[in-house]
Design a protein that fits this description.
This protein has about 325 residues and is an all-alpha fold. It has a single domain, classed as Farnesyl Diphosphate Synthase (Orthogonal Bundle). Helix content is about 75%, strand content about 0%. It has 16 helices and 2 strands. It has a two-stranded antiparallel sheet with strand order 1-2. The protein starts with 10 loop residues before the first helix and ends with a helix. InterPro entries: Isoprenoid_synthase_dom_sf, Polyprenyl_synt, Polyprenyl_synt_CS. Belongs to the FPP/GGPP synthase family. Its cofactor is Mg(2+).
Length: about 325
């Protein structure tokens, strides 16, 4: 299906997902449109920049384990995407990013203060919409939001003596896995699926979210701007040590020792940045990180075994294969 960059084998499911994502897109744009044209421009900035819409897709697929055509499903998809977009505005300020999804970041265009306030506005819009979905949805959204913020605090504070790899994976579970798990949960829940299915697909969502984010981290090193939506090596420039770097630094070869010298902090020198990327792309850290992505994708796929054998399950399996394959 074009909206997610994937083609699923079941034509009826693909058609339904394409229609559903179109409805989500319309509702999303309506949700970020305010009475003030300037607020609307800021709120729509990253919305118009596109994105994979992975979280809304997980909502729609989750709903296909029940009744996917209820209006609450689209509302829930808008809630999770608004929440995700809000975190991007805040992340770009904290990371001092200049590019997001191939376009100028909101903080670079509007300034840090406005970008932060826009993120707050999107969180508020998500809260308004989720309030219409009932107290259980509000409770789940609040707990998800708490995990997102906790993950950001944990990332900002650093390992503080903990194992850096374990710390990094724990951060990803909270910053990415939590919202993707809620996306899948909301879909099945509002689709009226059996509670056991709701719990199982939420568990899948968190594991899949880990594979998804780790795959993005590898793409930041290995891909060009068109593929990743941001300048290659952005994490290095911002001083963020992602899993391939952490694995490489744990190796005792000359390239790893040289890499350790370069990545003492943000790598802003262009020549050093290019050298670090070259070292990483050929490192044992990249090979090990690819294996970790495959491991999470395989674990997520195994979690699908308890779900009914319907086209949506096959589609989720396909997503796992796609995440594992795009970093080879």
């Amino acid at each position: 299906m074009a909206a997610a960059g994937l083609d699923f084998d079941d034509a009826e499911l693909s058609s339904a997902l394409t229609t559903g994502l179109g409805e989500v897109e319309q509702a999303l744009l309506a949700a970020v449109s305010g009475a003030d044209p300037y607020v609307t421009e800021m709120a729509r900035h990253l919305t118009y920049a596109g994105g994979k819409r992975t979280r809304p897709l997980l909502v729609l697929l989750g709903a296909h384990f029940g009744k996917p055509d209820v209006p609450e499903v689209v509302q829930a998809a808008v809630v999770v995407e608004l929440t995700h977009l809000a975190t991007l505005y805040h992340d770009d300020v904290m990371d001092e990013a200049s590019v997001r999804r191939g376009a100028q970041s909101a903080n670079a265009r509007f300034g840090n203060s406005v970008a932060i306030l826009t993120g707050d506005y999107l969180f508020a819009r998500a809260s308004d919409i989720v309030s219409e979905l009932g107290p259980e949805a509000v409770r789940i959204q609040a707990r998800t939001f708490a995990r997102l913020v906790h993950g950001q605090i944990r990332e900002t504070a650093g390992p503080r003596g903990a194992d850096p790899v374990r710390h990094y994976l724990d951060v990803l579970a909270e910053k990415t896995g939590a919202l993707i798990a809620t996306s899948a949960r909301f879909g099945a829940m509002f689709g009226g699926a059996d509670p056991a299915i709701v719990a199982a697909i939420a568990e899948f969502g968190e594991t899949f979210g880990m594979a998804f984010q780790l795959s993005d981290d590898l793409l930041d090193i290995a891909s060009d701007t068109d593929q990743s939506g941001k300048t290659p090596g952005t994490d290095l420039r911002e001083g963020v040590l992602t899993l391939p770097v952490l694995y490489a630094l744990g190796s005792d070869d000359p390239d790893s020792r040289r890499l350790a010298e370069i990545v003492q902090g943000p790598v802003t020198d262009d020549d050093l940045h290019a050298e670090a990327l070259t070292l990483l792309r050929d490192s044992v850290g990249m090979d090990r990180a690819r294996a970790t992505v495959r491991d999470y994708a395989d674990r997520a796929r195994a979690q699908l075994d308890v779900l009914p054998d319907v086209p949506a399950r096959a589609a989720l399996d396909h997503l796992c294969s796609n995440v594992a394959a795009r970093t080879r």
